Amino acid sequence: PAGRKVLIIYAHQEPKSFNGSLKSIAVEELRKQGCSVTVSDLYAMQFEPRATRSDIVGCLHNSEEFNYGVEMWKAYKRGCLSSDLIEEQKKVQEADLLIFQFPLYWFSMPAIMKGWMDRVLIQGFAHEFPNCYDSGLLKNKLALFSFTTGGSKEMYAKGSINGDIRYLLWPMQHGIMHFCGVELLAPHICFAPEYVSEEEKKEMLIAWAQRLKTLWKEEPINCSPEWYFK
Ligand code: FAD
Ligand code: ZN
After folding, report:
1. CATH label of the domain that carries residue 184
2. What protein residues have CB closer than 5 angstroms to ion ligand 2?
3. Ligand 1 centroid – CA 154 distance (Å)
4. Helices 83-94 and 111-120: angle between axes, nearest 10 degrees
5. What distance in Å separates the CA atoms of residue 50 and residue 150, rounded to the nearest whole number?
6. What residues make up the domain containing 28?
7. Each residue of 14-45: pLDDT tens digit?
8. How many domains does the chain have?
9. pLDDT tens sequence across 93-148
10. Hey, which of 15, 138, 188, 230 would disulfide with 146, CB 3.0 to 4.6 Å?
11. Which residues line ligand 1 (CB under 6 A)?
């Protein structure tokens, strides 16, 4: 794994949080392996989550009627994206593995991370019909969703009140990453860190560090409807 490049996209406000600890463990363990690790600490960067006109520098392709997707696609081709986006795209381009580290918000990722997806993974850069899914423009990269929940593992079982945790991974893993050509490593889920014992918290952190040690030997999941809904 030495020489592999990892980008951690991290969304938590508090460095002392459980997510902060998971992020630090990943940075430390992967660096120890000789990987080069970059972190996009979205709150610390005050990353802009809104998809607006300000994402295009200079003239618009059609100033009469604003279409974000089309304008971003054209601006990407012209090299007229705002500098924060060019920087994130460069980090993505260089990375072999993207790790998304976040607390689950409303069965999804926090808005700041969704904003990162909306603004960074634009047409022309990440996908360009018919280059989507297995032929998406970010093919030959891996992604791993690492997140924490408030609900317990039992609440996220199939048939339980929240339903199988995999149902919520469909939009994030398949709808976004796979759409862009990225292959998925199995998600890493720490259930209810706020409600478990100190002992269990320590165990969850150790389990993450352990998993990272053999991460590069893992095969991607078969990211198709069966994985999520069978
Ligand atoms: P923290 O509270 O930071 O961590 C738990 C404890 O671990 C803390 O006491 C912390 O000090 C301690 N800790 C940190 N590092 C270490 C360490 N190294 N060793 C020992 N202890 C440590 N949950 C759901 O299940 N589904 C939802 O749809 C959902 N929606 C939400 C929407 C919103 C807007 C919000 C705010 C929350 C939602 N939640 C939901 C709950 C949320 O997912 C959890 O609160 C979050 O995942 C907990 O992670 P954390 O990192 O913030 O935990
Ligand atoms: Zn898929």
Report:
1. 3.40.50.360
2. 174, 178, 223
3. 17
4. 90
5. 26
6. 5-229
7. 999 999 999 999 999 999 999 999 999 999 99
8. 1
9. 999 999 999 999 999 999 999 999 999 999 999 999 999 999 999 999 999 999 99
10. 188
11. 12, 16-19, 21, 103-107, 148-151, 193-194, 201, 205
